[in-house]
Amino acid sequence: MKPTLKALLALTLFTLLTVSSTLAADPENTLYLDLKDGQVVIELRPDLAPKHVARIKELVRMNFYDGILFHRVIDGFMAQTGDPTGTGRGGSGQNLPAEFSQEPFNRGTVGMARAQSPDSGDSQFFICFAPSHFLDGQYTVWGQVVSGMEFVDKIKKGIGQSGMVSNPDKIITMRVAADVE
């Protein structure tokens, strides 16, 4: 059976788009988040939050996030991690100024957790399971999951409105793509 010209053109276009999107990815602004079920790829957004992205990369390069628990996971909302104590009260010890934007919190958006003060973001972050537009303009968006969201969906959920998890899942490793490619 001979392929049609239309089929060949479609295949060529698909190949070009795939190669183009692969080459367009910036390894310095891409994170690999390894979970028990697979790898999550996060595109960093220095255009929205340059100070947060710089600090996250600094912590990642210190292996700060390796082995950290997902201490708060609310089904249909988000999975939160980044606290070395696992209690939801810890951090790296360096607060960041808020970098709020108009970027919406959609499925796969990665945002910085914070306390009451807008300038209290530190090392804790969350990944949205679903659109959470009530957070828009009130929390810093610093990344977007571009692949592996099915693995985020498998993170063990917490109990009740607090979402605190008993025997929680953890980050296995988190790396800047430029450091492993």
UniProtKB/TrEMBL annotation:
SUPFAM superfamilies, A to Z: Cyclophilin-like
Domain (PPIase cyclophilin-type) ranges: 38-179
EC main group: isomerase
Alphabetical UniProt keywords: Isomerase, Rotamase, Signal
Recorded catalytic activity of this chain's protein: [protein]-peptidylproline (omega=180) = [protein]-peptidylproline (omega=0)
UniProt-listed CDD domains: cyclophilin
InterPro entries in the record: Cyclophilin-like_dom_sf, Cyclophilin-type_PPIase_dom, Cyclophilin_A-like
Single GO MF descriptor: isomerase activity
Pfam family, one: Pro_isomerase
Gene3D superfamilies per record: Cyclophilin-like
Signal peptide: 1-24
Domain of life from the UniProt record: Bacteria
Enzyme Commission code(s) on record: 5.2.1.8
Entry keyword Metal-binding: no
Function noted in UniProt: PPIases accelerate the folding of proteins. It catalyzes the cis-trans isomerization of proline imidic peptide bonds in oligopeptides.
Similarity field: Belongs to the cyclophilin-type PPIase family.
Record protein name field: Peptidyl-prolyl cis-trans isomerase
Taxonomic lineage from the root: Bacteria, Pseudomonadati, Thermodesulfobacteriota, Desulfovibrionia, Desulfovibrionales
